[in-house]
Predict the structure.
Amino acid sequence: MGAKVTTAIVLYKAQTKKNGKHPAKLRVTYNRKQMYYSIDNKERVYEFTLDEFNKVIAPKPRGVFKDIKLEFSLIEDKAKKIITSMDSFSFRQFKTRFGIAGGDLTNILYYFERRITEYGDNDQWCSWAQFTTAMRTLKRYFGSNQVDFRELSAHELEKYEQWMTSQGLSMSSIGSYMAATRTIFKIAQREGAISKDFYPFGEGGYKLPSGQNIKRALKMSEIEKIYKYECEAFSPREEAKDLWLFSYLLNGANMNDIIRLKYKNINDEFITFIRRKTRRKSKSTKPISVALTDDLKRLIDKWGNKDRSSENYIFRFLNEEMTEKQIRRCLDRLIKRTNDQMKKIAKEVGIEKTVTTYTARHSFSTVLKRSGVSTEFIGESLGHNNLRTTELYLDSFEDETKKEVAKHLTAF
């Protein structure tokens, strides 16, 4: 690793708290440069007077000071494990791996918490929700806040899947949570926290359940029923119906993108925007440009802000003062409200499939495919970065096509 890296827990006297005490911090020294890291955690805040700290680091501390010295030792041990696992040391990489103070590198929940924090910091709220729910489900199964990676063998993952099924979770949800768990394994192995020899997924191990064959897309005749459905003007049900149609007509845009649209995204002919989901993944992400049809104009005139200043949101769900967490809560409530109403509409018009905001996206892509539009064009319209993702959206269409083709075999 080159120059030696040293660690020590010291009293950081450069910072004084309101109670007159100073925080204890982990000091890391490398190439004569020193950096200090917080070691506080959910259970304890490490702050002391100079006299108290001297009692902790004394050769033979007593009582609570003895316990704290042992905790210091464990924190330093974990820091040294991180340093040893690094091919070449950098303070930035160490900070990322050290994370919350005293993070247990064998505890998969520690890695989940770290990943969840990263998603929140980057406004990746879909991934944040997926990993948060996956972590909570794992905690419930083990009944603990401490789950060693080694407990999750292929056999244990099979039992975990069976338990989730018994709790009423769909295979789609189970697959999502297991995919998150697999990602956490890969991160921990990449950082050297666990051996690459222990990997319960893949060939000969646990295989994720697939929910790809669930048919979400609607036929044109079913979409027509929703389009022509009449309900009380400006009622919650009409709001849900119009938002669903707006999503369908706007290239299957998801609600997170719709509620963030501003009038600056509109010109005389097009609505142009970049998907929130992909904007951080690639610097070359292309904007989605959708023709401003009469139906889209009608829905904007009906539900949109009357003040059409360029920085104003088109719809009145958000305001500039809202934080990302407040926006996320607003979005969750809107999706739930819309889904509840759309399920009632579907039942009334005789659609047997479950209709949600997600159905609008799949319906858009499938209608285009049935009309002979290329998969490449559909992928670009959806804002996908690869064709494989687009192909997954078109699975239900392909299944129906196979059935139609089979009929021709005996058409004599």
Q: What stands out?
A: The mean pLDDT is 84. The longest strand covers residues 22-30. Residues 324-349 form the longest helix (26 residues). The chain has three domains: 5-98, 108-190, 220-408.
